[in-house]
Amino acid sequence: MLSEAGNKTMHASKLADEIYERKLYLQKNGNKAQYTQVRARCGHYPDMFEALPGNYIKLKEGIE
Questions:
Q1: 55, 13 contact by CB (below 8 A)
Q2: φ, ψ dihedrals at 36, nearest 5°
Q3: In this structure, are residues 20 and 32 in contact, taking their beta carbons and an 8 Å threshold?
Q4: Out of 12, 26, 41, 43, which could bridge 35 as a Cys pair, Cβ 3.0 to 4.6 Å?
């Protein structure tokens, strides 16, 4: 999704919406993940994602 976005950057809430719509991740209760959870998860993959101010998440260069 981020590779499809302009500047490979997307607001965490929009990213959470896209993840839910594509059924890529659901919480155990079937609900959409909170945008704060999505933003926190990007911190577990610092080689792939960069958390920017304003709750924006960017796909790092060289990652498709």
A1: yes
A2: -65, -35
A3: yes
A4: 12
Token output for 50: 């960069």
Asked whether the beta carbons of 32 and 16 are under 8 A apart, the reply is: yes
Cα distance between residue 28 and residue 13, in whole Å: 19
pTM of the model: 0.84
The residue type at 48: M
The separation between CA 42 and the C-alpha centre of its own chain, rounded to angstroms, equals: 7
**Half-sphere exposure of 26 toward its Cβ, with a 13 Å CA cutoff?**
7
pLDDT in tens, 9-38: 999 999 999 999 999 998 899 999 999 999
Residues 8 and 23: beta-carbon distance below 8 Å: no
